[in-house]
């Protein structure tokens, strides 16, 4: 990922970035469980408890696309820096530039940078959200992350004709998911499919080793409100069922919404690219004949 080709692509697809965010409220909760571990349900629950805004990995792609380039820079600093001396430190100011409007964070935005966020925000409480059955987590992760996204070559092809789609694919499929699951090539299969359960266990063990017990809650969606509210010092919402979100159908719906949003610009750029290609071929053919 450090070769000139990707540097050129990042320059070619770059778009103007907004100014860095400024933190006005402290980061309070970091939810470091892997994707497909009840992350969106937990996001909704935290917002209900007053942690507004709680940032989710979906926000990188769907609500916060202007900051995607910033997430790629953090990923490069963590996994591809030539100047870190074999280590990586990301400061609170660097995270705040992307998360300054949030008081909590969950999903890939937190799990990919778990150790760095835990160190950057020492006062924040940490939730290790897990699945009760690791086999069900593995099945869900492979089905949704691999088969519904990573294996979709049509989606990969379309990404080359839209700056936003290109960065969406770039940040997750070349950086966050690929590094989180230690993929050895451009396919999630080499990491998630072959080693997913081992990586899941190792990630959980790392969190337990990094965070003192009084600062850490290990929690799953089935546990509901009570342990979560006790840990956070909040009242249990009266008469309100615990939110359930981001099931398989909802996940697929998000992907379809993304494609629908960008379809017009993608096909417009495909047509223009094809027209330019035909014009160049015709010009060259005319020169040589």
Automatic annotation (TrEMBL):
Gene3D superfamilies tied to this protein: P-loop containing nucleotide triphosphate hydrolases
Transmembrane segments: 270-288
PANTHER family: NAD DEPENDENT EPIMERASE_DEHYDRATASE, P-LOOP CONTAINING NUCLEOTIDE TRIPHOSPHATE HYDROLASE
Keyword set, alphabetical order: Membrane, Transmembrane, Transmembrane helix
Protein name: NAD dependent epimerase/dehydratase
Superkingdom of the source species: Eukaryota
């Amino acid at each position: 990922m450090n070769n000139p080709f990707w540097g050129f692509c990042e320059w070619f697809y770059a778009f103007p970035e907004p100014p860095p965010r400024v933190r006005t409220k402290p980061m309070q909760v970091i939810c470091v469980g892997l994707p497909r571990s009840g992350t969106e349900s937990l996001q909704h629950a935290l917002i209900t408890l007053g942690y507004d805004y709680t940032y989710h990995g979906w926000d990188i792609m769907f609500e916060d696309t202007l900051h995607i380039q910033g997430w790629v820079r953090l990923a490069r600093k963590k996994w591809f820096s030539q100047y870190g001396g074999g280590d990586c430190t990301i400061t609170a100011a660097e995270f705040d530039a992307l998360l300054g409007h949030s008081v909590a964070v969950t999903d890939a935005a937190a799990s990919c940078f778990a150790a760095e966020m835990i160190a950057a925000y020492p006062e924040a409480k940490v939730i290790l959200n897990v699945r009760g059955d690791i086999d069900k987590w593995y099945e869900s992760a492979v089905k949704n992350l691999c088969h519904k996204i990573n294996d979709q070559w049509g989606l990969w092809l379309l990404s080359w004709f839209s700056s936003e789609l290109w960065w969406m694919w770039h940040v997750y499929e070349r950086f966050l998911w690929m590094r989180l699951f230690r993929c050895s090539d451009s396919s999630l299969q080499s990491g998630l499919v072959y080693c997913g359960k081992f990586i899941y266990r190792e990630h959980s063990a790392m969190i337990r080793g990094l965070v003192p017990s009084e600062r850490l809650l290990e929690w799953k969606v089935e546990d509901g409100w009570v342990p979560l509210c006790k840990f956070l010092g909040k009242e249990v919402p009266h008469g309100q069922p615990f939110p359930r979100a981001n099931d398989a159908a909802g996940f697929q719906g998000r992907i379809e919404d993304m494609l629908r949003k960008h379809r017009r610009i993608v096909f417009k750029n495909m047509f223009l690219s094809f027209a330019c290609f035909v014009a160049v071929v015709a010009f060259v053919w005319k020169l040589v004949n």
